[in-house]
Amino acid sequence: MTTQKTGPLRRAPILPQLIKFGAVGAMGFIVNLVVFNVMLLIVFRGVPHATIYSTVIATLVAIAANWVGNRFWAFSGQRQQNATREGLEFFVVSLAGMGIPLLCVWVSHYLLALTSPLADNISANGVGLVLGMLFRFGFYRWWVFSPTRANKRARSTNAEPATVTAPTLAGSPDGGLVRD
């Protein structure tokens, strides 16, 4: 006889995964910062539009670093066998997540007429960053790295269906930051 956990016990694996996701995001921020400055100050020094080129390259490198960190650490128990599909979906969600702070700045700046640098920073790096993080975490967890999607594909191709169990971080290769 199996019993289904409800309430806080059922949601317990989300907190350690969210902590890992935040750590990966922090590393992605550092990667972005370092790559941006190397590109701006060394590689594209004196090149017209160096800021734009540096931003694009730094963002792409940070997204790739975040994908590796999330795939092999934060969502290691949920990653799919089709890494190409997973990587493309991750990239799409990451780009959409980048749009959220832009939307927050647009609303604050143009609709609410809050045009000070402080207001722009609060809307982009406060509200936008938090909303973007929640958006990305949700889509990574329940779409990009979803074990139920792989199960549905396995059933639709008449393959041996895999059993779906609630993902726990304690069962992951690294045991999770916090045991379940």
* Total of helices: 6
Write down the secondary-structure element order: HHHHHH
Strand content: under 5%
- Give the N-to-C terminal Cα separation: 21 Å
Write the layout of secondary structure elements.
Layout: H1 8-11, H2 14-43, H3 50-74, H4 83-111, H5 117-144, H6 147-156
Helix pairs in contact: 2-3, 4-5
Short description:
The protein has 180 residues and is mainly α. It has helices at 8-11, 14-43, 50-74, 83-111, 117-144, 147-156. Belongs to the GtrA family.
Overall description:
26% of the residues are buried. The chain is globular and about 50 Å long. The chain has helices at 8-11, 14-43, 50-74, 83-111, 117-144, 147-156. It is built from six helices and no strands. The protein has two domains: 13-77, no CATH class; 80-147. It is 70% helix and 0% strand. Pfam families: GtrA_DPMS_TM. Belongs to the GtrA family.
